[in-house]
Amino acid sequence: MRRLLPLLLAALAASTSADAADVLHLQGTLTGTDHQRYLELPFQVPQGTGRVGVTLQHDGGKDRTVIDLGLLDANGFRGWSGGSRSSISVSRYDASGGYLPGALPQGEWKVLLGIPNIRTHVHTPYKVEVTLWSEAEVQAGKDRPALVLDPAPAWYRGDLHMHSTHSDGSCSSQRGNKVPCPLFLSLQAAVRQGLDFVVVTEHNTVSHLEELVRHQPWFDRLLLIPGMEVTTFQGHANIFGINGPMPFRLGDTLPDWNPLLRQVADEGAVFSINHPALPAGEDCMGCGWTPAKPVDMAGVQAVEVVNGSQADGPRSGVGFWERQLQQGHRMTAVGGSDSHNPGAADGPSPIGLPATLVHADALSREALLAGIKQGRVVVDVRNARGSRLELRLQTDDGRSADMGQDIALAAGQWATLLTELEYPQPVQLEFIVDGKRQRAALAPNANGSQQASLRWRSDGKRHWLRVDVRAADGSLLMLGNPVYVNWSR
Ligand SMILES: [Zn+2]
Ligand SMILES: [Zn+2]
Question: Where does the secretion signal sit in this chain (predicted)?
Fold first, then answer.
């Protein structure tokens, strides 16, 4: 046993370094002779590095010692933050304020320290920690600090689809000219719409990643999730939760959709087919879902059933989605404004119309993506603030499943489908069982909400049961995802 132990420890150390970033420690002590000097602390950046992080620590503040921070890469200047930041990082796609994103050349880099002040007889020890993440760790999101804007489990309201200057978003300039629209205006529009999160989904690019990182501290009630609208000649799909570029050259470098679906799954992101019922010809090139080769639909986690104002009618995605369910492909219905102009409150697709409500364990990227995959998701077509839609299947033998959950129910067993609703105007309710619709009577609850129920008997086969809310004129207001019966995941 005694001889085995060092081997075991060596193996543990190796596995740790394979999973975690490399950390280098550069430290020293400043004295009065360093007053108004610059110091370079060299370190090596190996090939394949995806992010360099630098953290400076010292406690000289009590003696009025000030240390400025900057960074030189193997080719020269990379950034400077003076005394305003103690922790910075640079990667290919984003960087802290004052630093340049871009390629990370291998070779000797230097942390640059400037000392505007240290008193003559003072000694100030400092510690600089340099963290190196590999490109693979960055693409997998392992370099990203966990961000939770609200730790409470709740329904969170967001918009999953929008464009800005980083692709084809445009709006009116100060002089009234149509110009590429700054992303910040979209985010402010989302705040005005009362949203908790947005996914910014630019066409085939990731140039917005840096702005999202820089804007997030200011938007500390609005979670900013980077996405990309994979825009091909055979359809569009949103990827929610990207860390870098995704392949989009379908029929060229990407033979079919399936390798992309596998990459999305590996990286913990969500793949959502966009506006599947839009035309695909010269009216809207590549917009409709028209894959040339078979797609493994098990890798598709979501479908955009309401794109902008297309909730009802031939361009609604509801029919496409329900056909997938009927064929046994389980995927979550979501909505997205596809806004290209945050200033056009009365235009075809303002931010937040529709909103997608996701029941998540917290307001964080990870919890929201998990909530979308799980399917406790409601599309709120008009973003009616304060709206709520719950669905539960309660079996006569005392078990239950909520929206997005599975339950096994043998042939002949009875259950009750229960829905509870809050909406700021009178509405109609429709239960949908395997695509067949039936109206239900709403009754008021003591808590001010309304409810309806449906008795239902299982035949032991696979079923999906859900609920829609409609206005008096029949137009769709809220679309609920199903409770699944006898589906194995
Ligand atoms: Zn599109
Ligand atoms: Zn779009």
Answer: 1-20
